[in-house]
């Protein structure tokens, strides 16, 4: 019973953040608008609301196989990321975020395609509960997608940087790779760290979204939404 109540409350909080993103998008949506869909429970709430709204737009582009299933189940149109030339809005959950738009993502192991879409998007909007707004990054271990064959050299490189990488149990990404969750890295210069980590041979992508930060961030609680708009 307790878990039912808390799931319902979580859902309610997710609906608030996702509705705020939808309201923002519908102010400028047209029949040509392309909407990128993130991955996770909050992104799936957004998909439901988008479908229920009945607003006309061109199609979705999905960041994961999980989200493609949600998009299809909701009856929305989707084009493959491989065929996508532009994205107007990208809406996604986050694991942690600073009020300047820099976030950590990858809790759902979809960070690779998520970053491609976030960086293509004209407007990246994050949707999450208020607990994910942080003053300093790093409480959430940083997800890094790597080539399985490069596991040992990448682990050693991360340890040399002060990181404590742990392979995520039973996790193979949509791209056939594995995820290392890395605590202990100095996250004080996220943009530099994002580039440094991606320069390690064998790293496919890391979960710091600093080069492509959010333009708007919706942080919700059971009472409402705090909406941040960044330059
Ligand atoms: C997936 C992600 C998710 O957006 C993040 O983990 C938040 O998910 P949820 O909405 O389920 O809390 O980065 O790779």
Automatic annotation (TrEMBL):
Single GO biological process annotation from the record: D-ribose metabolic process
Protein name: Ribose 5-phosphate isomerase A
A molecular function GO annotation: ribose-5-phosphate isomerase activity
A single cellular component GO annotation: cytosol
UniProt keyword annotation of Isomerase present: yes
InterPro entries membership: NagB/RpiA_transferase-like, Ribose5P_isomerase_type_A
Species in which this protein is naturally found: Vibrio scophthalmi LMG 19158
EC number in record: 5.3.1.6
Entry-linked CDD domains: RPI_A (cd01398)
Pfam families assigned: Rib_5-P_isom_A
Lineage, uppermost ranks: Bacteria, Pseudomonadati, Pseudomonadota, Gammaproteobacteria, Vibrionales
Keywords: Isomerase
Keyword field contains Signal: no
């Amino acid at each position: 019973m307790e878990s039912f109540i808390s799931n319902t409350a979580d859902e309610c909080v997710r609906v608030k953040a996702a509705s705020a993103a939808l309201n923002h998008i519908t102010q400028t949506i047209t029949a040509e608008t392309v909407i990128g869909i993130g991955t996770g429970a909050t992104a799936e709430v957004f998909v439901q609301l988008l479908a229920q709204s009945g607003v006309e737009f061109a199609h979705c582009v999905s960041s994961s196989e999980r989200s493609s299933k949600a998009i299809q189940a909701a009856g929305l149109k989707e084009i493959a990321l491989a065929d996508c030339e532009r994205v107007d809005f990208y809406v996604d959950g986050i694991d942690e975020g600073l009020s300047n738009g820099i976030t950590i993502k990858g809790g759902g192991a979809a960070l690779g395609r998520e970053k491609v879409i976030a960086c293509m998007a004209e407007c990246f909007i994050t949707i999450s509960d208020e607990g994910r707004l942080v003053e300093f990054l790093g409480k959430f271990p940083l997800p890094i997608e790597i080539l399985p064959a490069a596991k040992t050299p990448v682990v050693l490189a991360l340890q040399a940087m002060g990181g404590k990488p742990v392979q995520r149990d039973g996790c193979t990404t949509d791209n056939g790779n594995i995820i290392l969750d890395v605590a202990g890295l100095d996250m004080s210069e996220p943009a530099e760290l994002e580039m440094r980590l991606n320069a390690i041979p064998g790293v496919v992508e890391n979960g710091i979204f600093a080069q492509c930060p959010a333009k708007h961030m919706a942080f919700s609680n059971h009472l409402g939404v705090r909406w941040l708009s960044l330059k």
